[in-house]
Amino acid sequence: MSAQNLSSVAVHVVGQYHEVGKTLVGAWRSGARRLLDGAASRHGQMQKVTEFLSNRLDIDSGRVVEVLDRMAEAGTKGIEAVADRAARIESPIATSLLSTFSAINLPIANVHAQIADKIAEGAKKLETRVADVEEAAAEQAPAAKGGAVAVAKTARRASRKAA
């Protein structure tokens, strides 16, 4: 168990969270765009406002992705720099200490990697769900032009009995 193995797991975790962030920003952008498109189709006089908001949405979400990219790159470079410095250590005591540190922390790091993988998997499912809703809305849009208005059902909450 070397520090290099621990660093590769850490780099993997950073990469997974980077992908999760980008995936969630993409899903958020898609949902917000769908909301704006729906408002524009219902209220024709708001066309300029929705175009402005759509433009801002694209610019701002692009900036968020740029920040995520920079953060992931900086984190990865930092992990690799520490691992490189640790690999250069020639002292037997320091090498033994680093090996012990790696042996203790590698199982924990692997659990974090598994959690990051599950979160990335969930984010991809969310993105797919948002995309499927968009496709379903696009398929239903021509059918709704016949004058029918979709009405959302109100949520009902069960009343709690006083204890």
What do these coordinates show?
The protein is elongated. It has 3 helices and no strands. 82% of the residues lie in helices and 0% in strands. The longest helix has 53 residues, at 92-144. With 163 residues, the protein is mainly α. The protein has helices at 3-42, 47-87, 92-144.
Summarize the structure.
Helices cover 82% and strands 0% of the residues.
In terms of topology, how is this protein built?
Layout: H1 3-42, H2 47-87, H3 92-144
Helix pairs in contact: 1-2, 1-3
Descriptive key words:
163 residues; mainly alpha; 3 helices; elongated
Average pLDDT over all residues = 82
Helical content band: over 70%
Individual helix count: 3
Poorly predicted regions = 143-155
The rounded distance between the terminal residues' Cα atoms is 56 Å
Query: What structural class is derived from the secondary structure elements?
Result: mainly alpha
The biggest sheet amounts to: none
- Rg estimate, integer Å: 24 Å
Characterize the overall form: elongated
The tally of strands reads 0
Oligomeric state of the chains in view: single chain
Query: How much beta, percentage-wise?
Result: under 5%
The ordered H/E elements are HHH
